[in-house]
Amino acid sequence: MDINSLILNNLNYSVILFDENLVLKFLNLPAQELTGYSDRFLNGITLGRFFNNNAYIEEKVKNVMQTGEGFIEFEYKFQNKYHNQARYVILEISKITDGDKPHLLISLKDITRFKEMDNNIRSEEKIEDLSRFIAEMAHEIKNPLGGIKASAAYLRKKFGGSKSDGFRGFNGFKEIKELNSSNEFNGSDLNNFLEIIIKESERINNLIEELLALSKKHKTKISAVNINKIINEIIIMVQAEFSAKNIEVIKEFDPSLPKIYASENALIQVFLNLLKNSVDAVNAAKAIEAAKTADAAKAVNYKSVNNLNNANNANYKSAADMKSIRSMKSIKKRGEQAGIAGGKIKIITKIDYTRNNPKFIKIEFIDNGCGISKSDMNNIFVPFFTTKEKGTGLGLAVSQKIMHEHGGFIDISSAKNRGTTVSVYIPI
Predict the structure, then answer these.
(1) Which DSSP symbol is given to 68?
(2) How far is CA 248 from CA 68, 104, 343, 367, 380, in A?
(3) pLDDT digits (tens, 9 = 90+) for 306-343
(4) What does CATH list as the number for 3-110?
(5) What's the topology of domain 124-215?
(6) Global pTM?
């Protein structure tokens, strides 16, 4: 055995060579073990036979031989000669020449063991996610059920005779406690309790509807849709909320976007949810700034904010007084900004030229809201995870699922107190 053969046969990956006619000419020992073929019995094995007539691989090989540009697939599922064993490999294809004769060089790096380890880790993570999901679901359903139970128990206590222990040991809602402390019970009280029962029943129903949306594959009506038109219609739907909260919406739409085949209703659901998230983030940032302003006002040692109007005419001789005046003016300005300026949401549509096979339409929702912390970023798509007081934590999970069903995905980048960019990718 010559030195070249010795080196090739002791590599920890497979080396395979095809001639210019794409007929198998050489396999090193690791390749023989992986594929089931022997270098002693090649018998004119073609590329098509070697890869089980895989049209995808044949197309990639054709491109490599024509252009000379190599190709790599990081997780290719390879079937051996006998079709009884599948191995995950890193597949690399390149063109080499022997004089004026082109050859095709293929290397296969077996990563099956790492793939299995990754699958095991993912299985454990799924079990952990499922456990957390069940716990959160029980918590979300238990809360409104508690309000219903408290209201019904109190009504039974008033109208149902001797049984009154249903209320015992339960906290109930604040409104119920206030009514319970009163000696009078009238029609208005009854309506309040019935309103709680109806409201909390609807809350449970909405939660279950979102769970169903998350768990089942959507039966969607696919049609040619115009992304810019859909987003414009959504903006009109929520324009009143933008105006009430003084939020400026900036549109940068690419008018040359092609129509795509998708479910219009599903896309409306996704975009509307993302837009409302941006509104919530802007409002949260506004509340944070207002709170900071209030805290700063308390910290400044000054007799009265009202004196600001006369500050320039007042006889303040000390530097400390003047510093106090400037601080209060700054606080006043921040307070006005926090109370009046609502924030901005920019929506951008364009073709993403950084990705190929397929190309994507990219829709960006950019806000200058409160942002997302690093610790929370890892959980934003986890069902029931939410930082909102009245959120269910299902909106992003459902939206991501819908995009996956369309062959696309949602990507989010954010920094605490610096805003968020949500990018939606839909294949063309």
Answers:
(1) -
(2) 51, 58, 6, 10, 25
(3) 554 454 444 444 444 555 445 545 544 444 444 445 68
(4) 3.30.450.20
(5) Helix Hairpins (1.10.287)
(6) 0.48
